[in-house]
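Troubleshooting: if your tokenizer reports a length mismatch, compare against these two reference records.
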Amino acid sequence: MADYDIAIAGAGAVGMSCALWAQMRGHRVLLADPNPPGSGASYGNACTLATYACLPVNSPSVLTGLPGLMFSKDSPLSLSYAHALRNPRWMLAFLANCRAAPSRRIAGHLADLMAHADAGINPLIEAAGAQDLVVERGQLSVWSTASAAAAATADLEQRRALGVPWREVGPEEALEMEPGLKLPVKRAVHFHAARHLRDPLEFITRMHRAFAELGGTTLQAPVEAVRASGTGVEVRAEGQTLTAGRAVIAGGAFSKRIKGAGTDKLPLGTERGYHLMYEGEAHRVTRPVGWGEAGFYAVPHAQGLRLTGTVEIASLEAPANRRRLAYIARKGAEMLGPLPPPCSEWLGYRPTLPDSLPVIGPSPHTDRVLYAFGHQHIGLTLSGITGRLIADLAEGRQPNVDLAPFAADRAFA
């Protein structure tokens, strides 16, 4: 008899959701991570259950605006040329998916999965007793130039065609909704179905508490290797070998480092994101506000104002890019007026495949190893439904979502 029914590598939002869903269904679950639950990429996100975020980073606008994105000091994108040269196949595949047809296809797949996001995470919010952390004020997107406002039309109409509700907000109403905004508002859109969490780390902490109360086991150690057989999986962690019926790889950007999982064959890359925190400044906004041209969010957090976002394509090992942090501070002041010095700063690693779709499903080599990683910017949003789908697969159930677009052996470009 195996030590556990399911062993999960990774305790971020996705791994924690997989663990809690499985434990709620009565399985014996092991959750393994060298760090406390939720302390990685899940800690520093934009706090948003962004059910509107079905358009991938792979957008045709990346191709048309590539020179400006790469070379402007006001660009929300930063690229390490050394990293790009070391990973040419990933970069070329990413750019290939920025073409119109692939981008539309990817958006459709993300929208199909996103339609189940609330049904996946709401039971976890209830199980964790985290209803007090959920704020239902939607998300406001603003554009400060006429050209960017006009350019946003195609994306907005695509979202609407994919079932995402939104309403146009006039500049005056936008400033009534968010009087702290200091930038000129040429266009604003309210995604009224979106929600945000006052503190994502607290949410994951409460999920972990519920998991433990249901009998779940936590091992604060990295999963170093897995070895599957016809009857189960051997899991090696911190010098000991445990057995499980199935193993789930949910290590985010670090999923490739687990030997024997087959993940090293996948083109898993990293979009590095940053945030700055300003204690006592949460009143500056009342909901997540995204500034289109600047590519970042201002978010009211339980600990203060969080300015977060932008994209940096670089290696996991590269040091923090001070220019990214300076950019966020500068743009935050343009957006909200003068701010005090930040009380903390953060760098996180968004796990991203070159087609911006997560990998959800069995390893191509064995259904004893299940994959749940690569959620790029929307890991918090899709964590609950990913956890439910993984629990279905572990039980041999047929999921109610078509997982073919998220298969590990799909064509990535």
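Reference record two:
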Amino acid sequence: MHDSREKVVIITGGSSGIGRCTARMFASHQWKVGIIARGQAAMEATAQDVREHGGIAAIAEADVTDTAALEAATDAIIAALGPVDVWINCAGTGIYGRFSDVREDEFQRVTDVTYHGTVNGTRIALEHMRRQGHGSIVNVCSAIAFHGVPLLSSYAGAKGAVRAFTQAIRGELRLEKSPVRICSVFPAAMNTPFFSHALSHMGWPARPAKPIYQPEVAAEGIWLAARSNHSELFITGTTELFSLATRFMPGVIGWCVSQLGMERQLTRDDRAVDLCEPTLFQPSLRVRGGRGPFSHQARGWSLQVRLLALRMKISDAIRGMFSKRG
């Protein structure tokens, strides 16, 4: 990010949840924001958010599992906004239910969107960034990548694959001595429309496991990841502790996770039931915001993110002092 022109970010899955909040975050820093998703109305709503937060927006409709459509959407956004500096793979979907209750085509669809969609986006982003000689890719992973959770087998498998894939690509970029950077970020449970959109075989809609955070926390973490040299970034202390515990106390964590049965992962809340609209095979007919129906239980900040932001401010200030002296 060495030139003086306005910077460009492209976000897949940018029409709701973490993606929509991330679009606002970059817009508030006067970035140009490209949004790729399936629903036209939801993308237009996000574009309006971007403009209200001081950014310039471009939208392009594509399913991340369709490589040709994703390439065409990317070309359209670059033609409108300019070369891409940051690419964020944020598209994902999930199914709640016993593995034996999940149909093969449903399991495949979660894998295609959540994992293969990230692979497709990374491939396209790398093609552009290698040519221009710079760029940063942020793959939105999950704490579930460190240990699978019962009733979420398809999503857990996909996010575990995203983490390993990102590590492999990072190694290849280092071998190439490439200036392009790639990072995984690991949010904890976020209060997003994901749970309203997830297909549930539990009889009731899904809900996040506590502690829950607002998606703006994840958006700030993604913003920091895009500007840092982190290979992996934990967006909350909860996620980092979970990662450490799975490494040093795998048996204990395995037992604890096994206690997350069906009752602890479903909700009978009337508002959550009203908002339930599975979008596994088709986009939502409603325009969703960044947040889901669990704001009354969600935390609006993360000490982990605040400390990282403070550290980056101090580093920027020190670099600024030395550049002035030079």
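Descriptive notes for reference record two:
- The first helix runs from residue 17 to 28.
- The chain has eleven helices and twelve strands.
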